[in-house]
Backbone:
């Protein structure tokens, strides 16, 4: 990585990073990548988010689905950990709570493959500031 | 098309599972079973108006739905595409039907500023933080603003310290900037000690760069080149993510010398604490960082004058810092438009206790406790009755039903006998004994008192003894007077914030729940049935069938009686373990 020398340098990195992030946000990715975000703060990990994240990484790969699996911080729904946010291309993100391997499998088979929602959705109840 | 039916406890209690069944049946009958899916979801948080049904993708939000409404939802909405007007949410102000949940006031009750990136970006990837306008505030500061400009912006924003006391952040920075010294320090207080509060940990775990950026901005504003984060060693994940973040920021030259091509240099070190509650107090924190015992000293001198190694130091809490970068990028006008007159912006609360949606929430200052507990928090667990809520952790006070509509901000909470604290919020229901709760919190402060000053070291211990006395049924009216007196003495004479606030749970429960104290003292009775020594088990003779299950289960042979005849409990022998109550299948064992 290069040292940033000015605001312009920062802006350049931002533009590049935004393009990548935008692909997820807007979902107009030609390859149609699916984004899976696993909440991996202490609350999530304590409730078993790590094996769930591994499960998504391995199974999506095995089943030949182009997806990006990343970790993220606490979404605030600590009562329903592990929580996983899944975003299909061009669609609003959906958060699933109490995700165990069985539910993770269901999410891959039904939601990611066919866009059919499965049980365990947590409705988003806050406003973002951007 | 998807129909989402709320499966939270509140909605289930009002038959949401029947709604789900009816919807499925209606769809089958109309031959739409395969096209429209009916799904049970988690709590929408809008329990006041449950059961809730949401139709996707049009986002139509139906409230107070009954199982018999399933037919009309399917016939009208699913088949004809017309929302059912009478089931829509009615805006209490405009009296209009709101069909799209995005336009409902309820979903604007939470605004995420400090938690803006938590649960959104990957905390171990600096590029994702930058993509969300990260480090732009720092860049703006070093290239466009002077230190005084930055302080001015923070002052105008009205931001107050989120660690508890609510001191104006801009003013704190100004004092530190005016003190001249060869070296100054920016300190981040990440010693989150309140039981039940975990917002600082979540910010550090979910968005560490926001704190690093804010500390660098503070360094620029007050003229410091070194930053220190005091974090408890029991937060290993937060420490690891901070280390990753520090490494990435240094590689990009966002920390170190000549940040973004300017003359300004700043770097941050981590200091670990052993997890003592008193080290959240700024002078104790500084002593601990210097390698001394974590004990507070008298203020003044304030850290802004003589802090770490005797140099001017600015100490702010994690959540305070997390607000700084957005204030710079979005402007103080934007920030000060949120919140109440004297408390601007939002506050993160950690909801815990007997509440359905345990978790982290961020609401604008001025939101009421009712909105937090019953709407966002989804109400009390298992449909029990709300009794009290403890705000501000062990140093805060218990608030009751009559405070539910108080808008929450720094000053209002103090006015009703509690405090903001770091934002822990523990909800209690009708089964909680308030005397035991006060005792529980004191146990914590007794354990965490550093022992330096006598009122806190000895006084809290005595308070705890008196409370134990009362919960065992040995209290007298004179004890209650003594309790109150001692509380006031401890408050007035303790050295630091720990002792000055530790009697708050006792005082506030005495103010709001005197009847419970009196029941313990005069009637030797615990109204909530929690104090073991005050419980009395007896057998209702009419209900006892003489099965002997209780007698066989009693570990001290206190129960006697013939087979198929009535049984009795010998109160002298009874140790109040409750085994008979659990064993009895006929509900014949009575507790009072």
Residues:
């Amino acid at each position: 990585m290069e040292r940033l020398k000015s605001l312009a340098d920062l802006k350049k990195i931002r533009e590049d990073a935004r393009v990548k992030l935008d692909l997820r946000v807007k979902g107009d990715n030609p390859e149609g990548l699916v984004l899976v975000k696993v909440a991996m703060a202490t609350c999530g990990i304590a409730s078993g988010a790590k094996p769930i994240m591994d499960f998504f990484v391995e199974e999506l790969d095995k089943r030949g689905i182009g997806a990006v699996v990343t970790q993220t911080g606490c979404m605030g729904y600590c009562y329903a950990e592990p929580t996983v946010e899944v975003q299909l291309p061009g669609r609003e993100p959906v958060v699933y709570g109490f995700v165990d391997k069985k539910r993770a499998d269901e999410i891959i088979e039904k939601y990611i493959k066919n866009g059919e929602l499965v049980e365990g959705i947590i409705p988003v109840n806050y406003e973002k500031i951007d | 098309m998807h129909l989402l039916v709320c499966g939270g406890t509140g909605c289930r209690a009002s038959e949401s599972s029947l709604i789900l069944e009816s919807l499925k049946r209606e769809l089958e009958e109309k031959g739409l079973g395969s096209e429209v899916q009916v799904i049970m979801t988690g709590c929408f948080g809008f329990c006041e108006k449950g059961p809730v049904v949401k139709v996707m993708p049009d986002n139509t939000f139906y409230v107070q739905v009954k199982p018999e409404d399933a037919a009309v939802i399917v016939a009208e909405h699913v088949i004809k595409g017309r929302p059912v007007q009478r089931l829509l949410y009615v805006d209490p102000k405009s009296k209009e039907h709101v069909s799209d949940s995005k336009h409902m006031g309820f979903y604007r009750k939470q605004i995420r500023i400090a938690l803006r990136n938590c649960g959104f970006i990957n905390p171990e990837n600096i590029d994702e933080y930058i993509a969300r306008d990260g480090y732009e505030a720092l860049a703006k500061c070093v290239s466009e603003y002077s230190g005084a400009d930055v302080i001015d912006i923070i002052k105008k924003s009205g931001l107050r310290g989120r660690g508890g006391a609510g001191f104006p952040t801009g003013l704190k920075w100004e004092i530190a900037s005016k003190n001249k010294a060869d070296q100054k320090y920016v300190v981040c207080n990440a010693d989150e000690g309140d039981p039940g509060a975990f917002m600082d940990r979540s910010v550090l775990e979910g968005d560490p760069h926001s704190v690093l950026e804010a500390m660098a901005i503070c360094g620029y504003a007050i003229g410091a080149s070194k930053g220190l984060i005091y974090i408890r060693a029991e937060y290993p994940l937060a420490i690891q993510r901070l280390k990753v973040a520090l490494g990435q920021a240094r590689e990009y030259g966002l920390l170190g010398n000549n940040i973004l091509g300017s003359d300004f240099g700043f770097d941050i070190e981590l200091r670990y604490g052993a997890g003592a509650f008193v080290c959240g107090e700024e002078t104790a924190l500084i002593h601990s960082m210097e390698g001394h015992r974590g004990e507070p000293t008298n203020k003044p001198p304030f850290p802004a004058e003589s802090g770490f190694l005797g140099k001017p130091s600015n100490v702010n809490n994690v959540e305070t810092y997390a607000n700084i970068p957005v204030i710079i990028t979005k402007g103080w006008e934007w920030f000060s438009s949120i919140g109440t007159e004297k408390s601007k912006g939002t506050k993160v609360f950690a909801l815990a206790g007997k509440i359905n949606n345990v978790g982290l929430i961020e609401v604008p200052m001025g939101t009421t406790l009712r909105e937090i507990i019953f709407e966002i928090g989804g109400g009390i667990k298992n449909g029990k009755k709300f009794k009290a809520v403890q705000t501000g952790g062990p140093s805060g006070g218990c608030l009751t039903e009559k405070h539910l509509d108080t808008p929450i901000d720094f000053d209002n909470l103090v006015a009703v006998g509690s405090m903001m604290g770091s934002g822990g919020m523990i909800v209690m229901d009708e089964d909680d004994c308030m005397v035991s709760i006060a005792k529980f919190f004191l146990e914590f402060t007794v354990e965490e008192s550093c022992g330096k000053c006598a009122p806190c070291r000895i006084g809290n211990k005595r308070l705890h003894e008196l409370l134990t006395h009362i919960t065992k049924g040995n209290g007298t009216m004179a004890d209650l007077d003594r309790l109150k007196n001692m509380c006031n003495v401890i408050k007035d004479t303790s050295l630091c914030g720990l002792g000055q606030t530790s009697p708050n749970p006792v005082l506030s429960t005495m103010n709001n729940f005197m009847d419970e104290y009196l029941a313990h003292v005069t009637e030797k009775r615990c109204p909530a049935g929690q104090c073991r020594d005050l419980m009395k088990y007896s057998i209702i003779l009419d209900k006892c069938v003489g099965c002997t299950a209780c007698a066989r289960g009693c570990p001290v042979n206190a129960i006697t009686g013939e087979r198929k005849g009535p049984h009795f409990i010998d109160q002298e022998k009874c140790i109040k373990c409750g085994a008979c109550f659990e064993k009895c299948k006929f509900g014949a064992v009575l507790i009072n």
Summary: The helical segments of chain A are 7-26, 42-46, 49-62, 101-114. Chain A has a mean pLDDT of 85.
